[in-house]
Amino acid sequence: MSTSPVPAGPGAGPDTARILSRAVGGVRAATRARIEQAALELFTAAGFEQVTIDDIAAAAGTSRRTFFRHVGSKADAVWGDFAGHVARLAGLLAAAGDDVPVLPAVFGAYVEVNDYAAADLPVLRQRMRLILTEPALLAHSQVRYADVDRVVAGYVARRRGEDPAALLPRLVATATRAAATTAFEVWLGDERAGLSDALRTAFGQLAEGFPGLRSRA
Amino acid sequence: MSTSPVPAGPGAGPDTARILSRAVGGVRAATRARIEQAALELFTAAGFEQVTIDDIAAAAGTSRRTFFRHVGSKADAVWGDFAGHVARLAGLLAAAGDDVPVLPAVFGAYVEVNDYAAADLPVLRQRMRLILTEPALLAHSQVRYADVDRVVAGYVARRRGEDPAALLPRLVATATRAAATTAFEVWLGDERAGLSDALRTAFGQLAEGFPGLRSRA
DNA sequence: GACGTTAGAGACACCGGGTGCCACCGGCAA
DNA sequence: TTGCCGGTGGCACCCGGTGTCTCTAACGTC
């Protein structure tokens, strides 16, 4: 059970992973978490492009093939359970009453789904810094955000009785998401800023139509 | 000089390219145009992922290595001279007088830089359909749009005397760009729609802060 | 007209992300 | 014991992208 190069063979994997799981729920989730953690550390230390899959696999104590089985792609290693994030957003919107106006409902759902516990903020900063800084990850983000946009556009369309492909639902989705990512950027650049505050400020500006910029400067 | 498999060797390239250029200006530009055209046709016919670089090179009558020398990457083959596009936008903003309010200035620059001649619209549709449909190209678009955002944010910051990294300049940049891409989407989905009209409509909604969505539905 | 120079092109080798396939090993049920 | 099954590792392969070398056609110079 030491870390010395014992020829333990492939059987060593399941054992250690088993120990790590137990409380979490499943071997899969445990190894995936190990891989993602190793990837995050290596990416922030050396940069996304400089780290190879073999590096991550080695750091996580597994193989290249297993990495792809769990994570799917190099970029996916940074995103964690984003699908669950989107699902929570969809749930919040579905649960929003029809008495609250559309725009505040979207704003509120965004703020609530991004209401992280203080303990999770450092990891979130690490993730977002990578996503917004590394070109390859920034590119990949567009594919993920498209899922968010579909959810929001669908909600607006339902409330308005419009086609989700119409201008207004799509516009609300892309504009609110643009505001959210911008809020993330300024939050990332200011160590003292609060994420919820940044989101609310950005949404406020958006909802007011940038009043200071429409008439004479 | 026929198209039969004469062992012409590497010398055949420069000759034909020479003929194609002359009126355009440079052998480089001609071969690049040939490559981009071949790529666009193959992508729309078979899908972005299905087409390999070798396919494009063969269709353009050149080699894989030459493809990369001219185009840079597979995704770049779709974008044409987007850098010039961004430069024109920057020029329009720089030339905008300080008497016109900030937001209308940005809107106007966007509309004007996207005022294509009728003859260019089919190719534009082809390009935008690919960019908005193919996931890999949608991802890549984020990197390109980041350049646009920098230009717009810089303009807003200059007009307002703020830091380009502050919330408002960034927010205006990302929100207007989101509106523009949304306008492109609906324009793409509606054969009869006008691009300028779609842009103006989207910008109008954005500037008004979605009035119908802020109070009771 | 022979010369060297230069830009463009092709061939080759290599790297890294991603996938399909097969073999193995452990646990579990019949 | 036997058979199944989830998880794993190894291997081969495809493809996008880059560095390097060589070749050749075109151009200016003497």
UniProtKB/TrEMBL annotation, chains A, B:
One Pfam match: TetR_C_14
Keyword match Signal: no
DNA-binding feature ranges: 52-71
Domain of life: Bacteria
Organism this protein belongs to: Geodermatophilus maliterrae
Stated name of the protein: Mycofactocin system transcriptional regulator
Domain HTH tetR-type: 29-89
Transcription regulation listed as a keyword: yes
InterPro entries hit by this protein: Homeodomain-like_sf, HTH-type_TetR-like_transc_reg, HTH_TetR, MftR_C, Tscrpt_reg_TetR-type
